[in-house]
Design brief:
With 160 residues, the protein is mainly alpha-helical. It is built from five helices and two strands. This is DNA-binding protein H-NS.
Length: 160
C-alpha cells in the first residue's frame, strides 16, 4: 500500500518531536546527577586545552625575534628585514649613513655587503632590435660595395 506524502511528512514531524523529548529527558537527568555530585566542567570534559580525545595540531613555531642590527641612541631598533622604520628613514633623509646605526662589530661587514655601498652599474647594452638593424645596414652596404657593376658596352655596328 502506497503512503501519501502528507502522511510521511506527519510521521517525520512526530518522530522529531519524540526525539526532542527524549533528549530533554536525558539532559534533565544529567543535570540532576551533576548537581548531586557537584561536578565541574573540567571534571567532566578535562582541561580546556585537552577537551578533545584526538591529539591537537602542533602549534606553529613562534617566529624568531630577529636580533636588532640597527639602533639609534633613543632606544629605537630594527632587525634589518622588512620596511625600514620611520625613525631610520627620517635619519637617512637628514643625511646620516645607514652604517652609523649598526650595532656591534657589523660596521665593516655592512660597508662591504650593503647594496647602498655598491656603485650602480649602468646598462651599456643596446636593445637587440637596434643591434640587428645596425648589422643589417652594415651587411647590405658591404654587399653593394663589393659587387662589380654590370656595364653595358656600346657595341658599334661591325663595318663590313
Amino acid at each position: 500500500m502506497a503512503k501519501s506524502l502528507s502522511s510521511i511528512l506527519s510521521q517525520i514531524e512526530r518522530l522529531q518531536k519524540e526525539a526532542a523529548s527524549i533528549q530533554l529527558e536525558v539532559i534533565d537527568r544529567m543535570r540532576k546527577e551533576i548537581a548531586k555530585y557537584s561536578l565541574t566542567p573540567e571534571q567532566l570534559f578535562g582541561e580546556p586545552e585537552s577537551r578533545s580525545a584526538r591529539p591537537s595540531k602542533p602549534a606553529k613555531k613562534a617566529s624568531k625575534a630577529r636580533a636588532a642590527k640597527y639602533a639609534d641612541g633613543s632606544g629605537n631598533t630594527w632587525g634589518g628585514m622588512g620596511k625600514r622604520p620611520e625613525w631610520l628613514r627620517q635619519a637617512l633623509e637628514a643625511g646620516k649613513a645607514l652604517e652609523e646605526f649598526l650595532i656591534g662589530g657589523d660596521k665593516r661587514k655592512a660597508a662591504t655587503s650593503t647594496r647602498a655601498s655598491k656603485p650602480a652599474v649602468k646598462a651599456t647594452r643596446k636593445p637587440v632590435a637596434a643591434v640587428k638593424a645596425a648589422a643589417k645596414k652594415r651587411t647590405s652596404a658591404t654587399k653593394t660595395a663589393r659587387k662589380p657593376r654590370k656595364t653595358v658596352a656600346a657595341v658599334a655596328p661591325a663595318a663590313e
